[in-house]
Amino acid sequence: MPNTRRFHGLLAAACAALFCQAASGAEAPPPGQLGRAVVPVHYAIDLSIDPSKDEFSGSVDIDVTLAEPRAAIWLHGKDLKVSESYATVGASRRIAATYAEKLDSGVALLSFAETLPAGPLRLHIAYSAPFNTSGNALFKVVRGERAYAVTQFEAIAARQAFPGFDEPGFKTPFDIAITSRKDDVAVTATPETGRQDLADGSVRHVFKTTRPLPTYLIAFAVGPYDVADIGPIPPNAVRNRPLPLRGIAANGQGKRFQYALENTTGLLSALEAYFGTPYPFDKLDLIAVPENFGGAMENVGAITYDESLMLMDANSPVDQRRDFTTTHAHEMAHMWFGDLVTPAWWNDIWLNEAFATWMEDKAAQAHWPAGEFDREILKGALSAMADDSLVAVRAIRQPVNDSEEANGTFDAITYQKGGGVLSMLERFVGEREFRDGVRQYLKQHEDGTATAEDFIGSIAAVSRRDDIQPAFQSFISQPGVPLVSVRLDCNDPAHPRLQVGQSRYAPLGSAIQPQASQWQIPFCVSWQDGDRRASQCALLAERRQTLNLEAASCPVALLPNADGAGYYRFTVDEGGWRQLIESAPRLKPAEALVLVDALDAAFRAGTVPAPLYLSGLAALVNHDAWDVADAATDRLEDIADIYDSKELPAVESALRALVAPRYARLAGANDTGSELLHKSLQRFLIVMAKDRAMRAPLAAQAAKVIGLEGKSDATAADPAELETVLTVGVQDLGQPFFDKLLGQLAASEDQTFRDAAIGALARVEDPALVRKLQAAVMAKTFKGTEIFRVLNRQMNRPATTESTYAWLRQNVDEILPLVPEGYRSNFVPYLGSRFCSAARADEWRAFVVAHADALPGYERDLDQATESIRLCAALKTARGGELLAAFGSVQ
Predict the structure, then answer these.
(1) Strands 221-223 and 342-343: what pairing?
(2) What are the respective helix, strand and coil percentages of the chain, to the nearest 5?
(3) Listed residue (469, 472, 475, 463) closest to 430, CA to CA
(4) Average pLDDT of the residues in 450-454
(5) Distance (Å) of CA 71 to CA 39, 112, 126, 163
(6) What whole-number distance in Å separates Cα of residue 787 and Cα of residue 792?
């Protein structure tokens, strides 16, 4: 099969280059781009959607232009039952067609009774199709006695809702009409312009013509939704018109939309100020989907969100409100960057997501400065470096020859690494110059498509920095994390120098060839110069360079990533590490964050002794900045993954000793950072480090929350601590608590409670209760993407890894359909990454490959999972004993 896939990819690339479309059904169906010999110019979609039924129906009329005469046309459609199809040439001449789906990915062929002439014509297809039930395409959700329908089309699921040319490069206006039950709400990209009561009691809703859009950015929501409307967003200095704003939620939930609607104005205003142009569409509906479908989606004028991202109030936990702020800013940023201007093909979808990831924190910080969003893009980039340290990782900009490969581009490399690279380039050219380049890019490509070269060309033109283009290409066109090695040369103390080298970072056990990669790296270094901090920047274009430092004496505490602005890791000699660790309390938070990552990476590469590594993390756990302490604690938790359940008690004792003092310092603090850190460290000490003294009072709270021995009292636990409190109940109070919590979860429609309860239930360790949890999975107690947390957490906990793996092997054919199909090829291979032996890597690979037919496009994710397993095994073999001894010396 790999050879067949490669052949199809090459065929698709050649086809696109020659603007080919099939002239007859004898030609092989194109798995990638369709070419441009047939171009859609307008859609008219008429749908009948009743979520109480199993199917929906509709018709689509597509105006197209043919570059040459044709007897057949390739387009997209998946699982559609077509009842009528034909082409109309001229004013009224119909040419009959037959419709046939040729590839499982949804490539279909319209074959005509006679050859179509070149020029304009209209395609007509009438059809019906089943509702999807796993959070993809046009899917239905049943809550109690009410049924709802909503869409999730990115990347290639629009073809399951209507036939068409389902590629990002085809942008056309859409006219949409939806027939629904009389009392149902119907929402799409544009405002409703009319409605008609039909004889059967249903209602036909007609909507305003859209701006040119690709298929994947269209959305529909139909059902007995609440509509929350607090009035339009007023005009501002950029936008001279009011903007209609509504919240769309499941029945009875509309009242919980107030916070999100009220906080939309500030975020949108921050975005409009940055882009210098008004919100580009007619209205803004925020749709809280009544089932977790995976986060949020930037559909034009009808953005969809998981409920927990929208339904809250000012007293909700700060991390939930921060998630709302960044996610909402991200999706609204797409209205300009991704919707108004769209990538020409999936290989540049990374730029949409990287830019929105970068932009979300800028807008969030402007709207809510106390929320502390200014380091989020850096933390995301550092987290992406774990994946980027693998051989199997892809480049940011990766060829997509098969449309099914598009789903594999939505990962940490696209979002977090891409965002980090954009942040580095902004620092390189200047904030104002970067912003003005963005504005020029949007103006030049409005309502059209563009490439990464178009984007960086605009930045280079405005900033007059041509050197940004090769630097940009060096980071997007090759995988890996640059490793900058620095040696301070103070032989002449009055003229200190840095000897700087670059290679690709490689952990122990990796097959990476460090010298096979080279970047053009915007490099900045900082140091202590007496009582002041100094810094200096340069572009590292060579493998080895010498930099003359602008310092009057030999620097102290040299940090080779000033302000944490560069997407790279660094390494220094042991003396340099010791100086940095000693200076850790004085480092700026962003610099302390890159030190956490660099120190951890150096240990995993075998270049830092275990005692120095632990002492460094201990110092960073005690940094004043909440997110530095949180990052250092996360590294301690991650490194503990190399140990099995027999070795963990000694590690847990050390972890308590390292982290408990920092937790104690939080007493009485009530700022945003302290609230976030309190929740994180409490969970760490209770769940990871197993602090028995802290668990007892939480068990009592847990019993009160669910009413274990009386009436339930939701106020018995702080909402920010609810998952941790319930986790203690699950682990310490046994079957009565587990059974009652599971029952309450099954009956609850409150997504915030469900999230906390699932997080707790998924940490169950008692074998009998684990079996009950597995039975609940099979009984479909968990909805949408909720299953991810259950399976992942059970596979990743030492006490349950083996039993979960055995259950998964025995029931795989029943479990796979429960995973939303858009995520299967990514999520399922990842499940095995907790293993830590070479033998298990081979075993896991064989297991996944045996089910390849259900996991199209799984290959890279499986390669990454098995490589991670082997790296864990190599680290444990090389350094596990040394680190365990170091943990043992912690008092």
Answers:
(1) unpaired
(2) 45, 20, 30
(3) 463
(4) 95
(5) 15, 6, 20, 18
(6) 8
566-590 burial code (b ≥16 CB/10 A, e <16): bbbbbbbeeebbebbbebbeebbbb
Q: For the ranges 19-23, 195-199, 347-351, 733-737, which has the lowest average pLDDT?
A: 19-23
Residue ranges of the alpha helices (H) in 719-796?
722-732, 734-747, 751-761, 767-778, 786-796
Report pLDDT digits (tens) over 653-678. 999 999 999 999 998 788 888 999 99
* CA torsion, ordered 385, 387, 389, 395, to nearest 10 deg: -90
With H, G, I as helix, E, B as strand and everything else as coil, classify residue 140: strand
Cα–Cα distance, 250 to 165 (Å, whole number):
32
d(CA 539, CA 520) in angstroms, rounded, equals 7
Given a cut of 60, whether residue 687 has pLDDT beyond it is yes
What is the C-alpha separation between 722 and 710, in angstroms, rounded?
Answer: 19
Q: What is the pLDDT of residue 891?
A: 66
Between CA 466 and CA 527 the distance in angstroms is 29
Buried b (16+ CB within 10 A) or exposed e, 252-281: ebbebbbbbbebbbbbbbbbbebbebbbbb
CA atoms within 13 A on the CB side of 650: 14
Coil, helix or strand at residue 536? strand
Could you give phi then psi for residue 96, rounded to 5 degrees? -65, 150
Place of tokens 């019993």: 703
Cα–Cα dist 114/22, whole Å:
14
Beta bridge partners of 99: 110
Q: Which of 20-29, 299-308, 472-481 has the lowest mean pLDDT?
A: 20-29
DSSP SS3 for 443? helix
Q: Which two tokens stand for residue 715?
A: 């106020």
Contact 812, 851 (CB under 8 A): yes
Taking alpha carbons only, the member of 80, 105, 28, 3 closest to residue 405 is 105
Sort strands 185-187 and 107-116 into parallel, antiparallel or unpaired: unpaired
pLDDT category of residue 22 using cuts at 50, 70 and 90: very low
The structure's pTM equals 0.92
Report strand pairing: 38-48 vs 203-207: unpaired
